[in-house]
Write a structure and sequence with these properties.
Radius of gyration: 17 Å
Strand order of the largest sheet: 7-6-5-3-4-8-9
Number of helices: 7
Largest sheet: 7 strands, mixed
Shape: globular
Order of helices and strands: HEEHEHEEHEEHEEEHEHE
Strand content: 15-25%
Structural class: alpha/beta
Helix content: 25-40%
């Protein structure tokens, strides 16, 4: 069984400098206009730091449940999802599921009150701390994640029939995560739309095919958007 983390490591070994994710923020708000490009190596570093934060800082392990409540599509959603799977935990997108850890941009939500541990995420690419007050015990990702290691080693590996993903009550096991390849190897794929579930599927498909993602948060780019031409987009998801 190939895990997402193993697939990421293989892609880094294959070509560490190849872009993994290019992100455009077209949504109204303080981060509108951001463009961020992340190579496979840099994505691996973000995943390692987030996975170490989960495993060492929050005691997340195989069987733990992590709820990700982040915008989609967004580059931060991608590395947190891969971090959860690197630890061998269950990633849920269902707020009612009940979570050991919540990763969110809204650490004061009613959902946060029900989580054992909360990670407050700031979307801005250069953020150094959460822009507001945090209650005691909430991890400030922007301030704290840099202190965790750039290399990750899981304390335990998931079994094939362990739950990897929960969405709308449906459960996907680790052995079911990777769908049959439908993209040509090395594709450059545009992803828009606000479905986190769809984003995670595209992320896994990119790992499986050695493709890279161009994420656009906000309205879907027009067919003649010059940015997509300059990015070398070959497919629209």
């Amino acid at each position: 069984m190939l895990t997402p983390h193993q697939a990421l490591v293989l892609r880094i070994d294959e070509d560490a400098t190849r872009p993994a994710i290019t992100f455009y923020d077209d949504a109204p708000g303080p981060t509108q206009g951001e463009r961020i490009e992340i190579s496979r190596r840099v994505l691996g570093t973000w995943v390692a730091k987030a996975a170490n934060a989960l495993q060492e800082g929050l005691d997340v392990q195989r069987g733990s449940v992590v709820l990700i409540d982040l915008p989609s599509p967004h580059w931060r959603t991608c590395y947190w999802a891969l971090a959860v799977w690197a630890v061998g935990a269950t990633l849920t997108l269902d707020p009612h599921e009940g979570a050991d850890v919540l990763v969110t941009t809204d650490p004061d939500s009613s959902t946060a009150e029900d989580a054992d541990e909360v990670v407050a995420v700031t979307l801005a690419g250069l953020a150094r701390e959460y822009p507001g007050d945090l209650r005691t015990g909430v991890m400030d990702e922007a301030r704290e994640i840099s202190s965790f290691g750039d290399a990750f080693h899981a304390w335990d590996e998931p079994e094939p029939d362990d739950d990897a993903l929960v969405h709308d009550g449906d459960r996907v096991t680790y052995q079911e995560l990777f769908a049959p390849a439908q993209w040509p190897d090395g594709s450059r794929v545009l992803v828009s739309g606000d479905s986190a579930y769809a984003l995670l599927g595209h992320l896994l498909h990119a790992l499986a095919t050695g493709s890279s993602l161009v994420l656009v948060r906000g309205p879907a780019p027009a067919a003649d958007d010059s940015r997509m031409t300059s990015e070398g987009v070959t497919l629209r998801a």
